[in-house]
Specification:
It is a single chain. With 171 residues, the chain is α/β, with parallel strands linked by helices. Strands 2-3-1-4-5 form a five-stranded parallel β-sheet, with helices on both faces. It is globular, with a radius of gyration of 15 Å.
Length: 171
Amino acid sequence: MNTPLVVLVGPMGVGKSTVGQLLAERLGVGYRDTDEDIVAEQGRTIADIFVDEGEPVFRAIEKQAVQRALAEHDGVLALGGGAILDADTRELLAGRPVVYLAMDVEEAVKRTGLNAARPLLAVNPRRQWRELMESRRHLYEEVATAVVATDRRGPEEVTQAVLDALELKEA
C-alpha cells in the first residue's frame, strides 16, 4: 500500500501548503494538496462549489479526493481544513503519520485576515473561526500522530518541528 510520508491536517490558513512544500523539498519527495486536486478536477474554486452546490456536495467531493490521494501519494500530503469531519476519512488516517498544525485565533486573524474568500467565515469571522475550531479540534487531535503549534513560528521552524516530531531524516 502506498502511504504518504507525512499527512498535514489543521485549520485553514495554518500554513499546510507552505510547510508541506518545504517538507517535501527537505525530504526529497513530492507534495500534494487535496484542495488543489479538487480545484483541478472540478475546474472551479472551492468557494464556488460551496456557493453553487453547498457544503454537503463539497464534502462528498473532498472525501473522494482524500481517499484517492491517500491511496496514490507517497510524499507529503496536505488535507483541506474540514476533511477530518468525515468519519471514514478519520478511519483511513489511523496509523498514518499525521501532523496537526495548530494555531490560536489571534494567529488565525493575522494569517488569513479572516477574509470573505473563506466561505465558512463570511460573517463575524473571529467568532466563526473559534466555533469551527471548537467543533474540530478534538477531531484533528484524534487523527494526529503529532501536534505542532505554529503560533509565532515561521515556516522553516514549523517544518523542522514536524521533521523532529515524526523523527524523519532529510533527503
